[in-house]
Amino acid sequence: MSLLIVGIDVTIVNVALPSIRTDLGASLSGLQWTVDAYSLVLGSLLLASGATADRFGRRRVFQVGLAFFTLGSLLCSVAGGVGELIAFRCLQAVGGSMLNPVALSIISNTFTEPRERARALGIWGATVGISLALGPVVGGVLVEGIGWRAIFWVNVPIGLAAIVLSQLFVPEFRSRVTRRFDPWGQVLTVTMLATLIYGVIEGPSDGWGSATIIAMFAISAASAVALVLVETRRGEPLIDLRFFRSVPFSGAAVMAMLAFAALGGFLFLNTLYLQEARGYSALEAGLLTLPMALMIVIFAPISGRLVSSRGPRLPLMVAGLGIAVAAALMIGIGDGTSIACLLVAYVAFGIGFGLVNAPISNAAVSGMPNAQAGVAASIASAGRQIGSSLGVAISGSIVAGASVAGFASASHAAWAVMVGIGLAIVVVGFLSTSTRAREGAARMSENFVA
Fold this sequence. Notes:
The chain has 450 residues and is mainly α. Helix content is 82%, strand content 0%. It is globular.
């Protein structure tokens, strides 16, 4: 249930963006922040939330996360301005950071028998696809029938029910060995990401050479350097930089960012294109993008089987090509582009994105000691959220200032960037799954244990 509301939130909010712009008078950057505030805060806090759950109890932290997410959703539904909406989206994200990684840990500890655990994780994974598929349609129905505020109402009863059910049925778990908090690592991570995203989003309006934007990029770079210096000196860092000595892990982190940058940018641009440039309603836009979500549902389990039988390289190659082909088809879109052409692009993107997650997760923990696999997976998950933020920020900046009539042509450069992202996934996927990369990861794991 927690994954359902967090997953739906990814696609349902995008469908409502044009209505939010009209009702609240939001600018394009305001719409970017409405999406990015959530993914930015979520990605920044994922690792800290895992350590908090180990220390204070996973059920307790899970329920607190549900409470924050539910409260944040309720407040979003009554926001009187775009600034309030962005602030309440941040509150949602604080709760969301306590849900998925903690819930996954609860499942792993509850189902100890391998076959039962595999079935439980299969249901968990299927929920991702279901939530992504439901988002556009449910969002379209709610926006058309009630208004954009209703997209946040749906989280409230589900969140409250999950709090009660977890109290009744979920046992409490605490880790015998807990990691220390790393406040400096956390502050530097948030500062680095927030200033980078701010610079990218506000650059077109403030001017790329303005003092504010230059200062944001300078602070982000300085924070990145400071983060490396701080984390290499801590015994229990927030981000263990030794992980990045593993080529498969580093590749997984890069591919996670790339894939979700493509997803974030694709959903953001496509929503504005369909509803504002083409004049489709929210429901019509949701139905048009449903084939993409269905392909994700179908090909996500296929990807898992391919990883098991053939290894991660094949699904990564096909995934990158699928994303590149979809973006290439969108480069030439205009106000009269046929629905058939759009549907082919949506299907291609859905196939590509559906195939990419399982091999990324596999590569993230490939060669890692079992004791470090959970932390490695969490870093990859944080990379997904950071990538989503960057995708929305970059694509929005490219089309900033475009009129409704000129939006389609202005978006061509952004789609070209996504073609590059898809091809980059192919290259990184090939390099990070080579025999040499796997052997290097194995040596790194032995040194890690030593």
